[in-house]
Amino acid sequence: MGQMQTRLKLDEFLRLNAPDDLAALTAAVARASITVWDGIPFRSGLLKEVNPSGDTQKAIDVYSNEVYTEALVSTGYAAEVASEEMEEPSKAKGEVSVAMDPLDGSSNVETNNPLGSIFGFYRKPLPTSGRNLAGSLYVTYGNVITLTLSFGKGVHRFVALREGASMNFELLDVNLKLPEAPEVYGIGGSRKEWIAPVRTFVDSLEERGMKERYCGTFVGDYNQVLARGGIFSYPALVNKPQGKLRVLYETAPMSFLNEQAGGYGSDGTMDILDIEPKGLADTSPAYIGSASLVKELERMISSAL
Ligand code: FDP
Predict the structure, then answer these.
(1) CB–CB of 200/189 below 8 Å?
(2) Which atom of ligand 1 is found nearest the CA of 217?
């Protein structure tokens, strides 16, 4: 019988590799993610007749927003917590500005496709550019719960494992990098709405033997790009030139992490990290993944302008 391997626990990793504030905020997200995940069957309307706490059922996105906001604020390190679920950020007394998408892909609940959560830790008040990110992370609630993070020194992944009555995150992968040869792509919106260069580019991906893999949750779709290499996009649409995804909450944090994995994220003309959003909910087209593919598409978009 092989010996049981001891894996590094998230708390220990954070103690060794993160400044105190980001360590505390990340640990709070990790704990809260288990609460959110536990709540999905009850809060999402899947079990219509069940109401475990006896209180009024809240939509799962409102619930996850509350759980994460409370967890982040209670660390004492958050200056503000902003998300699309709140008109105004929740203000607090710390120094890190947190922008989050507390439940990404909530329209996937009924179909049991993956869901996710995204967090960006900014060193300046919001709204601000992705260049002021000190770290970011995303949670996947799929077959397993994972937490993938970067504090600017590589990308590392943890998995939630049961230990008695609780779940704890333990190290799964260090220094994740996008594979050299890209395999998959996933593009949001519908083909007829995509701007012309995106359509031409996607046709060429098929010709190169890449496979379409699209689950409809940004986190899930990006997560497979990180594992297999390729490109995720919610592109500029003919009637929606600014796309759908929010810069502060979604694309800048993921782009920060993707860059740490050796990739590149563009809005079609520039690095997503250089966008200076004017409002909290500003959107931009997003092309994120393997650097060579994203740069190629960026050139095609620029020459079509
Ligand atoms: P959702 O509206 O379900 O929250 O963030 C928005 C998002 O999901 C992304 O997770 C996803 O990539 C995109 O919308 C999917 O949009 P389409 O259905 O238009 O492809």
Answers:
(1) no
(2) 10
Give distance in angstroms: CA of 103 to centre of ligand 1. 11
Q: Kindly give the distance from the C-alpha atom of residue 7 to the centroid of ligand 1, in angstroms, as a whole number.
A: 34
Q: Are 170 and 5 in contact (CB under 8 A)?
A: no
Q: Which residues lie with the beta carbon below 6 Å from any ligand 1 atom?
A: 104-108, 188-189, 216-218, 234, 244-245
Ligand 1 midpoint to CA 281 (Å): 15
CA dist., res. 224 & res. 246, Å (int) = 20
How far apart (Å, rounded) are the C-alpha atoms in residues 70 and 81?
9
Angle, vertex CA 287, rays to CA 238 and CA 111, nearest 5: 85
262 backbone φψ class: left, alpha, beta (φ>0; ψ -120 to 50): left
Question: Hey, how many other C-beta atoms are within 10 angstroms of the C-beta on 38?
Answer: 13
Between CA 244 and CA 63 the distance in angstroms is 23
The per-residue pLDDT for range 229-257, each reduced to its tens digit, is: 999 999 999 999 999 999 999 999 999 99
Helix (H) or strand (E) holding 43, with range, is helix 20-43
Q: How far away, in angstroms, is 105 Cα from ligand 1 center?
A: 5
Note the Cα 273 to chain centre separation in Å: 15
pTM over 0.90: yes
pLDDT class for 5, splitting at 50, 70, 90?
low
Mean pLDDT taken over the chain: 93
Give the total residue count for the chain: 305
Q: pLDDT for 116-125, tens place per residue?
A: 999 999 999 9
